[in-house]
Amino acid sequence: MKFSAFNPFPVYGTEADPARWPVPPRYSAPGLAGDGLARAWELCDLADELGFDYVSVAEHHYHPRQMTPNPLLMAAALSQRLRSAGVAVLGVDLPLTNPLRTAEELAVLDVLTGGRLLVGLFRGAPNEFLAYGTDPYRSREAYEEALDLVRAAWTEPEPFAWIGRHHEYRTVAVWPRPVQQPHPPILVAGNTPATARYAARQRCRLGLSFVSAARAAALVAAYREEARAAGWEPTADDVLCRQFALVAPSDDEADGLVRRYGYGDLTAMRAVSDPRVSRELTRAFGGTAPSTVDVLPAGPMFVGSSATVTAQVRDFVTATGVGILDLAFNELNLPFAHARRSLELFGREVIARL
Questions:
Q1: Cβ burial, residue 105 (10 Å; 0-12/13-18/19+)
Q2: Would you say the pTM of this structure is higher than 0.85?
Q3: Cα end-to-end distance, the chain, whole Å
Q4: How far from 147 is each of 100, 102, 207, 280, 353, CA to CA, in Å?
Q5: Which CATH superfamily is domain 2-353 in?
Q6: pLDDT tens digits for 13-44?
Q7: Position 277 confidence tier, pLDDT thresholds 50, 70, 90
Q8: Distance CA 65, CA 62 (A)
Q9: Which residue intervals define the domain Luciferase-like in the entry (predicted)?
């Protein structure tokens, strides 16, 4: 079993409505962003000290609870801070980026981390397509082509041309080669059966996020079945799941914190302020863009005292076959002190028990 600490680099103390996307820049008061970054680095350093296997970052736009428009920028800084933990970029939204630039920067990151890089290459959440005017109707096809291009850029030994439907480059010769050969592990989001099976056909790792144990088990089963049909057998490390975790000295205190601080910011990540735009994006995703209600369990997956959370984690892993848990400790609108304590209790007591 491996553990990753997800850090969204949130701003604390803003008066912005966390259930809104995008959040108007007028709420970005002087000093707030710098304070949020300083506290985020503190949690990253603590996770490394506590023995987490990875510290992870992700791409999101236009919201103060996730200040990572370019996760590779944060990952580069992490590569120079972390002494033992790997860096997990979970992930880059390929339809929003230049895939060759992404391939180059990730290759450099693999060198900077000494081969401790895990890469998530994602299509992106529906609201993210509004950030740069990306066409959501073409995003699936463009994403799959970009994934193939990134992998080719990492593995082809000679310069080559790429003439595709969505990307065209006359000369591709990415430097440097990644430390990990043939390339760093690639993780693909698989919160639907179709995407889970796609990950298996691509021989990529499977990434799940905020799903119930029953749903995770079904998706992992579909992934493993498709992998066997493709002639390979995934290991436990090939399946990662992101969940919330909140550890407190007692079950009662943990439950009280959940009731008080709730899910506001996650709802914002999955929602768009204009409902007409939200409906249009869902249609563009072929009706497969899950709502928060569809995906999330009734409450955070791992909540309680360290003993309770240990049992919850053990039961979840046994039921699903997930090998890496990517845990969000500071994304529940929690005040920083509670988020830090939760991370520390998990590292010192839950990981030790497991």
A1: buried
A2: yes
A3: 8
A4: 10, 10, 15, 25, 38
A5: Luciferase-like domain (3.20.20.30)
A6: 888 887 788 999 999 988 999 999 999 999 99
A7: low
A8: 9
A9: 30-319
